[in-house]
Specification:
11-stranded mixed sheet, about 20% helix, about 575 residues, alpha/beta
């Protein structure tokens, strides 16, 4: 029924310590030092700034490849400290995410600065949850923490599931994560039938077989608790530190990360210390330029591909730490914003969006053509006075397919959404064929006038690049949950930010649907909880365009001379 994955063998290149926290719990911690430096030596000429990483995915696993990453840091003169967080793998304590990370972050930094090889300066680095642990350490306000490099993450994970503190579509994939990684010290690999009802029973069967359960999963299903993952001082209210935000345009939590960046850029105490690196990558660091990913380019499996990927993965952090930890380079050597224009090249800017960027609005029109295959209805340059609408049936037992089972690695397959757009329960709209490239650089917003007959329903939107061959690939995505029966009103959908070139001969396209399965649990049509419901009911959803109901898409366009 399941496979238990325990800790991988210790690295021969590191020394493990069991570091004591303030409550007596000890956390397994690997220390990698620059070559030929004994860990016990106290030498004023041989001390180093440290880069701390605190993660829940086994510090010695191939998945996080820190034995390889550490070499890139130590070669540059940094000590690297990699730690299993509380309750995971070789560390002690209860397996419960988020809540103890500020205290454990403080105590781990305090341990580092008392080591004979430490020069008293600490930075932090890492992705996703180990981006979150950086923000938790910022909230602890240890004076030795000088800089952080959070990658593809969010300062408060609750903003991923409920970005506006309102009910949101049930991100099954995201909640299921806790049932695999936060049961006990190990990780559990298993599959459930995401179409079975009641779905929650399948997780109960797995927990019974394991003999343990995930406390955080229980807080998320069947009803999501309103519980912030930063329960104490919010890191944005703490002492500012330099931050290099590393964002992926195709990251499935990228919208939350960009909200963090925008919030801090608006705060006078933080703004001067904010730096942005944004690439055409997904959460697992697969690149648009390699998508769909061939076996020889899959760094998750191929050692040569990993060797090619790691310098770009680590390089921005090394340059950042050379400024804010070592102090060997001036701050002026760093671009405030380094961003990749997908299908084009890297650029720099003083702000994000780049200076001189403009917004462009496309008005959804001709909805009577939207229920067919692409190009469907029209993304028009101007609104129309003619009011019209389109309807589709949301059937919970025949949901619109996500086409990917793992949105963390969406670029691995980078599927063609044209077949999805042709379904009768999906609306599709396209702009005109482009005579010149269209460079998107900034936020994307969607305002839709929607209706629905069910007590609650969802709206999913995907912005696509429709090529001359009729294939439609993802640019950005977003979703919204509506809870008022027979609702009739405007909703806003945040599709995040992007840097993306639509090439000559291509079209901008948009699809709208009422489900996105298996990534999200379909609404039941009855108002019942989708985790526990057995009976479902199809419902009618509608979209209004034109007249006083002008559904519209707004994109940000880079200036022609952006560089």
């Amino acid at each position: 029924m399941f496979e238990r994955v325990g800790a991988a063998p210790l690295s021969e290149n590191a020394r493990q310590y069991m570091v004591r926290m303030r409550d007596g719990v000890r956390l397994a911690t690997d220390v990698y030092l620059p070559a030929h430096h004994p860990a016990e030596q106290r030498d004023a000429e041989a001390v180093f700034p440290a880069v701390l990483v605190r993660l829940p995915y086994d510090k010695n696993s191939r998945y996080v490849y820190f034995d390889r990453i550490a070499r890139l840091f130590t070669t540059r003169g940094y000590a690297v400290v990699v730690q299993d967080v509380r309750g995971k793998f070789r560390s002690g304590g209860r397996t419960l995410p988020f809540l103890r990370e500020p205290q454990d972050g403080y105590d781990s930094i305090d341990w580092i600065v008392h080591q004979p090889w430490s020069d008293g300066r600490v930075g932090m680095f890492g992705d996703s949850y180990y981006g979150f642990t950086q923000w938790a350490a910022v909230a602890s306000e240890h004076p030795a923490l000088r800089a952080i490099v959070p990658r593809v993450t969010a300062a408060d994970f609750s903003t991923i599931w409920r970005p506006d503190e309102q009910p949101a579509p049930v991100w099954l994939e995201g909640i299921e994560y806790f049932a695999h990684h936060w049961v006990d010290h190990d990780t559990y690999e298993y599959e459930v039938d995401r179409r079975a009802r009641p779905l929650l029973d399948q997780f109960e069967q797995v927990f019974d077989a394991i003999g343990a359960r995930s406390a955080w999963f229980d807080l998320m299903a069947p009803r999501q608790a309103d519980l912030p993952t930063q329960p104490g001082l919010h890191p944005f209210d703490a002492r500012p530190v330099p931050v290099l935000h590393c964002v992926g345009w195709f990251d499935n939590i990228g919208a939350a990360h960009m909200r963090d960046y925008a919030e801090l850029a608006s705060r006078p105490g933080w703004n001067a210390l904010q730096y942005l690196w944004a690439g055409a990558i997904d959460h697992e660091n697969y690149r648009l330029s390699d998508a769909p990913v061939a076996p020889e380019n899959d760094h998750g499996l191929d050692e040569n591909a990993l060797a090619r990927m790691l310098p770009e993965y680590v390089g921005p952090a090394l340059d950042f730490f050379d400024v804010f930890l070592k102090g060997v380079r001036p701050a002026g050597s760093l671009a405030k914003v380094s961003w990749e224009l997908g299908h084009a090249q890297w650029r720099t800017a003083s702000t994000w969006p780049p200076p001189g960027s403009t917004t462009r609005t496309y008005w959804l029109d001709e909805p009577d053509h939207a229920t067919g295959a692409l190009p469907g209805g029209l993304l028009a340059d101007a609104p129309t006075a003619r009011a019209a609408d389109a309807h589709w049936i949301h059937d919970p037992d025949s949901p619109v397919p996500s086409l990917v089972d793992d949105s963390f690695a969406v670029l691995h397959s980078h599927p063609d959404f044209a077949p999805v757009a042709a379904r009768p329960d999906v609306l599709a709209f396209s702009g005109p064929v482009l005579d010149e490239p269209l460079d998107l650089a900034g936020p994307i917003g969607l305002h839709l006038m929607v209706t629905g007959t069910a007590p609650a329903f969802d709206v999913f939107a995907k912005l696509l690049d429709l090529n001359p061959e009729g294939e439609a690939r993802l640019i950005a995505r977003g979703q919204h949950h509506v809870t008022t029966a027979t609702a009739s009103g405007e909703i806003g959908i945040d599709l995040g930010h992007t840097g993306y070139r639509l090439r000559r001969g291509h079209r901008l396209a948009l699809i709208v649907a009422g489900s996105d399965h298996p990534l999200f649990l379909p609404t039941t049509g009855t108002g019942e909880n989708p985790w526990t419901a057995v009976v479902t009911k199809p419902g009618t959803q509608g979209l209004r365009t034109g007249g006083g109901h002008a559904s519209r898409l707004t994109v940000t366009v880079a200036p022609p001379d952006a560089s």
